[in-house]
Amino acid sequence: MIFLLAFLFAQTGSFATVNGLHMYYEIHGAGQPLVLIHGGGSTIQTSFGRILPALTKDHEVIAVELQAHGHSDNRDGRPTTFEQDADDVAALLQRLHIGKADIFGFSNGGTTAFQIAIRHPELVRRLVIASSMYKRGGSPPAFWAGFAHATLDQMPKVYQEAFLKIRPDSSALQTMFEQDRQRMEHFKDIPDSVIASIQAPALIMMGDKDVITPEHAVEMYRRLPHARLAIFPGGHGAYIGEVMSGDAAPALPVIEEFLNAQ
């Protein structure tokens, strides 16, 4: 029921042409700007639908859908990269005349959030990095081995259905899946020194049964100059009520406390 209400809450949005991409975004609430960046193969609703209404109480939430995901188009079909996604989000903020925002990225969106902080530090007030990594060593070898031969039928049905409900085009779904698969297959580490140069306060979050190892979460916490760390019971995104988990979102008070800190 909570997810259904959140889904109905966010049915309308807008498009902006940024770097040749027709990017879909939604704006809800008022207050300090907060950008939500979804995970790979996902949409605004599958990643954030259960917590989006609560976040709008104190924030102007700008939720985006990245290249080939959800409502956004595939530009000219070039491969997706975390760097390009970061530049697209930055260009959108500039179009919206938002000078500085909190950036909240989940899973692949967290790696994009890192790239925003690296490439456009002037736009970032605070960072929330959820279930994400900046190097291949952040996940077990078996995680990476799976991308070489991954097929669309292995993608959870809930993600496929969410995409097709927005865009009933099976070829677009296949393209999005293949672009995400190739990006992860060829994932490149961000140098430790670059992560250490990020000056924005950061909150690192993950589940204790996540695809990211707890050791990597601690490494990020230690590497970033101004970081906090929260590890919750459960799997990938369960602590924010991601669509593959239950309705509970135990991380919400932690997120709100961090974002509202002076």
Automatic annotation (TrEMBL):
Annotated InterPro entries: AB_hydrolase_1, AB_hydrolase_fold
Native organism: Dinghuibacter silviterrae
Q: Where is the AB hydrolase-1 domain?
A: 33-162
Q: What is this protein called?
A: Pimeloyl-ACP methyl ester carboxylesterase
Tell me the GO molecular function terms: serine hydrolase activity
Point out the coiled-coil segments of this chain: none
Please provide an example of a Pfam family that matches this protein in its UniProt record: Abhydrolase_1
